[in-house]
Write a structure and sequence with these properties.
The relative contact order is 0.07. The protein has ten helices and no strands. Helix content is 72%, strand content 0%. The protein starts with 7 loop residues before the first helix and ends in a 6-residue tail after the last helix. The chain is mostly helical. Helix 1 packs across helix 3 and helix 5 packs parallel to helix 7.
Amino acid sequence: MESLPTNYSDLLAGLRASIRETRLRAVVTVNTHLLELYWNIGHIILTEQEKLGWGSRVIEQLSKDLKSEFPDMEGLSVRNLMYMRKFASDYSETTITQQPVAQLSWSHHVILMDKVKDPEERNFYVRKAVENGWSRNILAIQIKSGNFHRSGKAVINFKNQLPEVQSDLAQEIIKDPYICR
């Protein structure tokens, strides 16, 4: 029986890393295209409603017809079509195809649309969610705790006195509502 080469574990580790990286890039690409699709659907609904003045009955019918045409596709409910409309209203076409907006999942955007009305505040949470890898639940907690309103309020000198990683951590700790009340 032939033995494995001495560098086999390195070879396997490299292939595992390559597969994981490729899978991640594929998911990000699919997510970006899905957000573009949702924005396009929302934009068409928004444009047609403004131009022709039709209401929610048309959206209900669109939902039924699209579900019938694409029975294996989720996300075509009346509620989701309304979110798509709002998504198109809240973001310009160029914004959704650029980073970091395109890096968040649709469910992250639904939370943002439901809970954050101010565009500057919403962009803050988009950036922070991407930078910190926040899940939907963590994003919701950060919004509820008012992270945007606490950000940068304390007078500190962490950046001058600590290495960058430690100063960032210290800055985030003092913004935590459970630590600083």
